[in-house]
Amino acid sequence: MTIVVDNSPTRRLAAFAADLTSALIPSRVMARAKELLIDYIGHTVATTQEAPAQKLIRFAKANGGPPESRVIGAGVSVAAPWAALVNGAMGHMAELDDTHRGTMSHPGDSVWATDLAIGEKVGASGADVLVAGIAGYEVALRVGRAVMPDHYRRGWHTSGTIMSFGAAVSAGRLLKLDHRPMA
After folding, report:
1. What is the pLDDT of residues 116-151, one digit of tens each?
2. Which own/partner contact pairs does 69-73 have at CB distance under 8 Å and 24+ positions apart?
């Protein structure tokens, strides 16, 4: 377990994310994460033939760098950041993505898209992908609760702001960052 010298909320969240293991996650949370991941993949695959998705896929295929990570349902692999971008955008297209009411956000499109892209790039196990996703959800939703509802009232779209924290944490977990670089 990490000893956090600076006890700021950022440092505490970073230590939580860096130190989280599957042994610390209740089985019902792990089961729910699996459901959310399957749901994300399903509604993302459903959008692959949509015109905007096809444009993104073509652009990523032409400009997306080395084949590190798959674009879901497209039969193409591109650099991990491009896969995360395209998969996240496609996940949001059908408006079937998960919703967290307290933060008015759609966590899965950012967290799972990043999680799967980085996980594939680094050869992560399924358990590692789930733990990273859970850490990403937890951190992003805590940040979201801290800034809501004022954040939304000021015109910010929380899926594009607070979920960047979830994506970063998920990637950080899979890249095996300790608490300092995670923060």
Report:
1. 999 999 999 999 999 999 999 999 999 999 988 888
2. 69/116, 69/117, 69/118, 69/120, 69/121, 70/116, 70/120, 72/41, 72/44, 72/45, 72/48, 72/116, 73/44, 73/45, 73/48
